[in-house]
Input
Amino acid sequence: MLHSLQALASTAVIERAILLANHLIASEPVAAQRLREHSGRSVLLHLEGWPSLLPALPPLALRFTAAGLLEWCGDEVPEVPDLRVSVDASNPALALVRSLAGDRPRIEVAGDAQLATDVNWLFDNLRWDFEDDLARLVGDAPARELSRFGRSVAGAMREAVRAIGSVASRLRGGGEGGGPTPR
Output
């Protein structure tokens, strides 16, 4: 029973993530245009080193639609995807902390060069215009203020993560030598 609940939850999370990705792609006409050229092609996302103590994730195979959006393949994973993206997932907590600091995890890509270029372009250029989406719900002025507040909180979190990382690296790098570590 626990396994079936986990499978339902992971499926729901993947479906919501695809909806969010498609929302971002649809809001950027250049992104959708670039992906239309790859209609019917597939990408397989592989999480390398996923901890065995965590529940296993289902395969994440995506197909590009004629509209330039993403479609999850579900259990129909292609034997030979057009592009294979391997992400270091050996420490998910560290990856989350690093992503909050603005760092990308180690990624390896194999397959079609043009498709890889366009997928990389998405990672480099797609950004969620949260303020615009929020303005549709609460209006322009409140959305602007909430967005400014959110940016300042995110900036403070990034600085805190960097500071913690700096302290941790100093401790690992021999900072235990009896005296205070210079700043």
In short: The mean pLDDT is 80. The chain has six helices and five strands. The beta strands are 42-48, 60-64, 70-72, 83-88, 107-111. The longest helix spans residues 140-172.
